[in-house]
Amino acid sequence: MTEANKELVLAQPTVLLKAEDVAGILGLSKGMVYKMVRLGLLPCIKLGATGKSVRFSRKQIAEFIQSKEGGIRESKEGGIREND
Fold first, then answer.
1. Contact 30, 20 (CB under 8 A)
2. pTM, 2 dp
3. For a FRET experiment, which of 29, 61, 66, 79 has its CA 20 to 30 Å from that of 6?
4. Nearest-5° Cα angle at 34, 5 to 74
5. Are 50 and 13 within 8 A, CB to CB?
6. In this predicted structure, which of 5-19, 35-49, 54-68 has the lowest mean pLDDT?
7. Which residues, in sequence order, are bridge partners of residue 74?
8. DSSP state at residue 9
9. 3 state SS for 26-69
């Protein structure tokens, strides 16, 4: 996802984003987004009785990005690392 597309997605009036949208914005795989949710590293809204379906607030994702100014990336081992 290009920088312009990231800005467009974050600026859209849609209140909630799907995991694939967040993956594109953060430059991570969709699986890594779900892993970050499971680890409590990424703010989300759990939907349904079981809470298996998740959506993301545009505002919270924008704040998450700002809090990670150095960036984040997937490590070769499948983990999450903050860029130095």
1. yes
2. 0.68
3. 79
4. 70
5. no
6. 5-19
7. 80
8. H
9. HCCCHHHHHHHHHCCCCCCEEECCCCCEEEEEHHHHHHHHHHCC
H or E, element range at 73 = strand 72-74
Strands of the 45-47 sheet, one edge to the other: 16-17, 53-57, 45-47
HSE-CB at 48 with a 13 A cutoff on CA atoms is 6
Convert the pLDDT of each residue in 47-61 to its tens digit: 888 878 999 998 889
Q: Which DSSP symbol is given to 70?
A: T
- Written as six digits, the tokens of 65 are 């990005």
Among 27, 30, 79, residue whose Cα is nearest residue 54: 30
* Domains in the chain, CATH or no CATH each: 3-68 (1.10.10)
